[in-house]
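Exercise 3.2. Students should predict the tertiary structure of the chain below and write it as structure tokens, then compare their answer with the key that follows.

Predict this chain's 3D structure.
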Amino acid sequence: MSDLNTYDRFQQVYNSTRILTKNYVFDAEKYQNYSPLFLPTTFAVSYGMSFASISSTIVHTFLFHGREIIYYWRNSRNEPDDVHMRLMKRYKEAPDWWFAVLFVVFFILSVLCVRLWDTGMPVWALVFALVLASTLMVPVGMIYALTNISVGLNVITEFIVGYIIPGRPIAMIFFKTFGYITNAQAITFLQDMKLGHYMKIAPRLLFTAQLVATLWGGLVQLGVTAWSSHHIKDFCQPNQAAGFSCPAARVFFNASVIWGVIGPDRQFGFGEMYHNTLWFFLVGAMLPLLTWLFLRKYPNSVAKYIHWPVFFTGTGFIPPATAYTYGTYCFVGYIFGYWIKRRYFGWWAKYNYTLSAGLDLGLVFGSLCIFLITLSPKVNAPNWWGLSVVMNTADAENRPLITLKKGESFGPSRW
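Answer key:
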């Protein structure tokens, strides 16, 4: 039920190489001779929730914040300066042409990347991905600014590219990266700029620091990944001894199979196995509308606390996250966001966010210490109930409810 892998009709992990040509292009004949692709329950539900999150984000932003966005769009240059802006005017601004030149340079590099290598992605698709990321910047940014929940464009970009460039998994990965990651990184960039504004960091210094850190971070990440893939045994395999199983990367890969190889039409098209998940688009669009209409008549009702984009986006990390992960998340959120806030509001207002930042730093430092300590072959990780209980489940042990006999298969007879 809860897994980050996809499966074939023989109860085995789906082997995408059996439906691809030598050039990594979908082969319909091989697909017919092999198997349709089956999604675990959490995988299928998470896709439905992602469909709803996109439509609910757009409708919610238009209904609840449309006038506000239009007002500030028209009057952003005429707003009186607050204390932060007055202090920041002591510094020289980072000129707009710096950002323009940076965009042109990296756009050219992106074009060269998708054309010089056999990615199967045309330049117009690259432009489309960037336009999509830019267009949805406002609704995604509005939700993130108000709720600290980031609406991901990963599924909608996969859905779109699966139709416009079918059967091209490499092109799907590139389109998803330019559409989804561009939007996510832009939101993070705005967050950093806002923090720098409040901390009174000179704009030109902030620009330089972010540019250098981004370039250096990209090189380091690429180097670490390349080194790990060549020096760590069974790297990114499910049963890797040291736990380097790469769950997020495997979800990314499985998405390339679902959307880029087989395509949304064969998975979610009319009459197909997961067609009903498309109703989530309509559900996500209708619920904010119904809530908005209800609040117009009953503005002080409990419905004012309902936020559908947050509801649908909250499960976006499943998979690879599990119910265990979200159980901890909900428990801590309830304690600090409700119980302590109601009983000890003074402490909550003064220390809650500081404590959150401290715990984040502690997590990073603790993870680094654990990683360095357990690198030694003479050190064994502690074995206690809190670590083992999650692994002693049917999902963790990959135990199916019904085991097929050799030569048996399940599912539809035609696909």
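Discussion points: The first helix runs from residue 28 to 34. The chain has a mean pLDDT of 86.
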